Every structure is written in structure tokens, then in C-alpha cells.
Amino acid sequence: MRYIRYAFLAALAIVLVSVALANRQTVTLSSLPEGLAAIPGLGWMAVSIEMPLFLVVFIGIVAGLLIGFVWEWLREYKHRAEAARKQAEVKTLQRELKKTQAERDKDKDEVLALLDQAS
User: Fold this and answer.
1) Where are the transmembrane segments (predicted)?
2) 49: phi then psi, degrees, rounded to nearest 5
3) What is the reported pTM?
4) Which of 13, 54, 86, 115 is the most buried (most CB within 10 A)?
């Protein structure tokens, strides 16, 4: 299984390197279109940066993955909270069961109490 993972990672690296080599041309990435940047008061938000196209693509993929992971983590909160609540309830019930069994077995012989607990 480890070799399959290494083969997959090697193939992924080859694909990423080939995409990077094919898209080395520089592009300008702007935060606002020129029309909006000309509006008074919005000039401070107009930022432009030049970078290779493959960086724009890779950064977009990473940002999408991170947003998806955070979104899914937030969506699953109710399930994690319910599981924690049920786990606390199980611990409470186990404590009550042990206490009830101890009260039931306090007048019994030790051997009989052990046999009852084993079954």
C-alpha cells in the first residue's frame, strides 16, 4: 500500500511540474477592475501583483481546499457535539450501573457477586 501511495504522489508531482512549466508566463492579478478602482474612496483596495500563471492556479486550488475543509468542519459541528453528549451520557450511565450493582451485591458473598458481574 505504501508503494501505491508513493507512485500516486510521484504521478501527481509530475503532473504539477508539467502544468507549472507549461504556464510560466506572467499575469497581472488585480483585486478590483479598473472601473471600480477609479471610484474615489476605493483606490486603497486596488492592488495589482504580477506572478506566474501556475502560481495563480495552485494558490486557487489550495484556497479552495482550505475553504472546503473549514466549511465541512463547521458543518459537522452538530454531529461532533451530539457524539460528545452521548459519550458523556454513556459514562454517567456506566457510573450509575456500577453503583447499583455495588448496592445490589453488598449483602452477597464475594464469590456470588463476582459470578453476577461476569455474566
Assistant:
1) 51-71
2) -140, 145
3) 0.62
4) 54
User: Taking the mean position of all CA atoms in its chain, how far away is CA 54?
Assistant: 25
Q: Contact at 8 Å (CB) between 19 and 54?
A: yes
Same domain, 42 and 90: no
Q: CA of 60: how far to CAs of 2, 28, 36, 56, in Å?
A: 29, 15, 23, 6
Are 27 and 68 found together in one domain? yes
Do 54 and 23 meet the contact criterion of CB atoms below 8 Å apart? yes
Look up residue 86 and give its three cell numbers. 452521548
Q: Is 48 helix (H, G, I), strand (E, B) or coil?
A: strand
- CB 28 within 8 Å of CB 46: no
